[in-house]
Amino acid sequence: MGAAGFFRLDRPLTPAEVAEIAGARIDESRAGAAEIIIGVAPLDLARPGELAFYDRRRYAAALRLCRATACLLRARDLDSLPSGVIPLVTTEPHKAMARVMARLYPDSLRPHSLFSASGVSPSAIVHPTARLEPGVSVDPGAVIGPRAEIGAGSVIGPQAVIGPDVRIGRDCSIGANVSVVCALIGDRVILHPGARLGQDGFGFALSPRGHVKAPQIGRVIVQDDVEIGANTTIDRGATRDTIIGEGTKIDNLVQIGHNVVIGRGCVIVAQSGLAGSCELGNFVVLGGQSAIGGHIAIGEGAQIAAKSGVTRDVPAGARWSGAPARPVRRHLRGELLLDRLARRETK
């Protein structure tokens, strides 16, 4: 059985074309006239015809043995590149590689119909009052509820559920087994398989006689160019909306509680949890498994390290870590002092 290639190469590129796409400088003295790029690979596996990139010193040994046709790298690393490899010099090799891969494999940028079909599958269930613009694809088993609206170019994956009155913009990709209720979604949004949007939040009035469920009557608002990872859950608001700002990228297995407001361009890494009514400013970064307490505000541009527990407001531009989270330098000094104390106790 042959190995499957899941993404089709759009067309081969010359090293000069790669350099133009990447915004890189090509060393013409080492460029072969007939060389072409037909694929990409990591440094240690790349072969002639493939493009690699070098961005971290820990892979210096692999760079010295690289056999790729061309490599994106910084000028400071040129001396380590084998003579048979065409250097493409750039200040940001990783970002440059992303641009080139997008040109080589455009189908990889967003999920498409898993049934490789266009239009509405005969086995999909679309309510008569739902409105689908031309060019919408609906895969087998999907359910689209009453009065839902879906914009042109969007793809609804198999077994996805789009609830009543939901609005989905244009050129969106809704993955397999996604559920979207009580939500308004902008253009070019990607929801990866298993994501859940708009279910009621965890709201109860606690009492020794029993916990009273508080109705959640808000919505989820997802602005343009947001990407939400597999099995991430976003609760609808209680009395106000849960909002995900334009261009924000959310990893897999993230929990976002009711009334949360997330600004533009944020990055939230896997297994993070945001409790109800917390607010993130624009371009905040949350490391993996970070936890944000309820009703907490994190200022614009702040960065929270992985496994941190945030229990109070974070100023704009700050870098915090630890549990409870505090400024990185203070956290590291505290850890160092504890380690020294522990070493003394064991002597």
TrEMBL record:
UniProt pathway: Bacterial outer membrane biogenesis; LPS lipid A biosynthesis
Keyword terms: Acyltransferase, Lipid A biosynthesis, Lipid biosynthesis, Lipid metabolism, Repeat, Transferase
Domain of life: Bacteria
Catalytic residues in the record: H258 (proton acceptor)
GO biological process: one example: lipid A biosynthetic process
UniProt xrefs under SUPFAM superfamilies: Trimeric LpxA-like enzymes
One annotated Gene Ontology cellular component of this protein: membrane
EC number per UniProt: 2.3.1.191
Domain UDP-3-O-[3-hydroxymyristoyl] glucosamine N-acyltransferase non-repeat region stretches: 37-102
Entry-linked InterPro entries: Hexapep, Hexapep_transf_CS, LpxD, Trimer_LpxA-like_sf, UDP_GlcNAc_AcTrfase_non-rep
Pfam families from the UniProt entry: Hexapep, LpxD
Gene Ontology molecular function: any one: UDP-3-O-[(3R)-3-hydroxyacyl]-glucosamine N-acyltransferase activity
Catalysed reaction, written as an equation: a UDP-3-O-[(3R)-3-hydroxyacyl]-alpha-D-glucosamine + a (3R)-hydroxyacyl-[ACP] = a UDP-2-N,3-O-bis[(3R)-3-hydroxyacyl]-alpha-D-glucosamine + holo-[ACP] + H(+)
TM stretches of this protein: none
PROSITE patterns per UniProt: HEXAPEP_TRANSFERASES
Function: Catalyzes the N-acylation of UDP-3-O-acylglucosamine using 3-hydroxyacyl-ACP as the acyl donor. Is involved in the biosynthesis of lipid A, a phosphorylated glycolipid that anchors the lipopolysaccharide to the outer membrane of the cell.
PANTHER family: UDP-3-O-ACYLGLUCOSAMINE N-ACYLTRANSFERASE, UDP-3-O-ACYLGLUCOSAMINE N-ACYLTRANSFERASE 1, MITOCHONDRIAL-RELATED
Family under the similarity heading: Belongs to the transferase hexapeptide repeat family. LpxD subfamily.
UniProt subunit comment: Homotrimer.
UniProt-recorded name of the protein: UDP-3-O-acylglucosamine N-acyltransferase
Gene: lpxD
